[in-house]
């Protein structure tokens, strides 16, 4: 390969990049099996240890799964936001950043997502958004359904923005900011207020009114901020920690 001066770890990273490039070049789909190890060893001109390091890295990134035994090998997967959430969490933990960091980020990001969703959301996503509102309304006495539908609502707005980065970022931030795990509770009065503002945002998005969607989402995130600052200030100041239960 002409890369003898590079450390093995660097070589493995370059091979991982080539594997991903080849997945794209071949047009591989989710579930496709990649070439067997012996073929990859010849194709990438590396040792077995380097190739396995490359494949293990891609597995950790969610790009492939490694199936053991005969007929196994690397299978193409769809990466998700779990790795992103882990990486961001670790970065913030080593900065000793508090959980309010995540709320502040949502304050900056989500109104723009709602604005874009009003311009770009497709009919299937709009139906998902409507379902989350209706299902929350029909189950206001169920705290678990409230949290689940709130998550679906914000995920769907992010995806509906038509900006893939927003979709992954919000999914990752919601993974990190699990209010129930932090000991936060949401009484019926709060759940009802959340339902009302979700409905307001949904109507603005469904009406294709970007400015109304942006303003409504600003109102919603500001309400979340006020509620958590009033009732859970200590939780917001708790340093972010990977895998911690708050």
Tally the beta strands.
2
- Average pLDDT metric: 90
- The rounded distance between the terminal residues' Cα atoms is 49 Å
By helix and strand content, what is the structural category? mainly alpha
| Helix run count | 11
CATH architecture classification name of the largest domain = Up-down Bundle
Annotated CATH homologous superfamily of the largest domain: GntR ligand-binding domain-like
- Cα-atom radius of gyration: 22 Å
Give short descriptive properties of this protein.
11 helices, 68% helix, 246 residues, two-stranded antiparallel ribbon, mainly alpha, Four Helix Bundle (Hemerythrin (Met), subunit A), disordered N terminus, Arc Repressor Mutant, subunit A, elongated, 2 domains
Structure summarized in a few sentences:
Keywords: DNA-binding, Transcription, Transcription regulation. It comes from Rhodococcus artemisiae. 68% of the residues lie in helices and 3% in strands.
């Amino acid at each position: 390969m002409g890369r003898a001066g590079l450390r093995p770890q660097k070589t493995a990273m370059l091979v991982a990049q080539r594997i991903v490039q080849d997945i794209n070049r071949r047009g591989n789909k989710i579930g496709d099996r990649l070439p067997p190890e012996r073929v990859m060893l010849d194709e990438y001109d590396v040792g077995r240890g380097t190739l396995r390091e490359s494949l293990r890295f891609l597995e950790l990134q969610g790009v492939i799964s490694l199936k053991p035994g005969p007929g196994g090998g690397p299978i193409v997967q769809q990466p998700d936001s779990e790795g992103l959430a882990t990486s961001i969490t670790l970065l913030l933990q080593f900065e000793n950043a508090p959980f309010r960091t995540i709320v502040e980020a949502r304050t900056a990001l989500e109104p723009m997502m709602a604005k874009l969703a009003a311009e770009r959301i497709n009919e299937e996503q709009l139906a998902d958004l409507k379902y989350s509102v209706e299902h929350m309304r029909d189950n206001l006495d169920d705290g678990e359904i409230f949290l689940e539908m709130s998550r679906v609502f914000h995920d769907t707005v992010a995806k509906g923005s038509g900006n893939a980065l927003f979709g992954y970022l919000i999914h990752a931030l919601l993974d990190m900011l699990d209010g129930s795990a932090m000991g936060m509770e949401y009484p019926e009065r709060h759940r009802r207020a959340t339902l009302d503002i979700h409905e307001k945002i949904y109507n603005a998005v469904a009406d294709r009114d970007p400015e109304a969607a942006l303003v409504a989402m600003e109102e919603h995130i500001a309400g979340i901020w006020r509620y958590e600052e009033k009732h859970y200030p200590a939780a917001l100041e708790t340093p972010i920690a990977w895998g911690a239960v708050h």
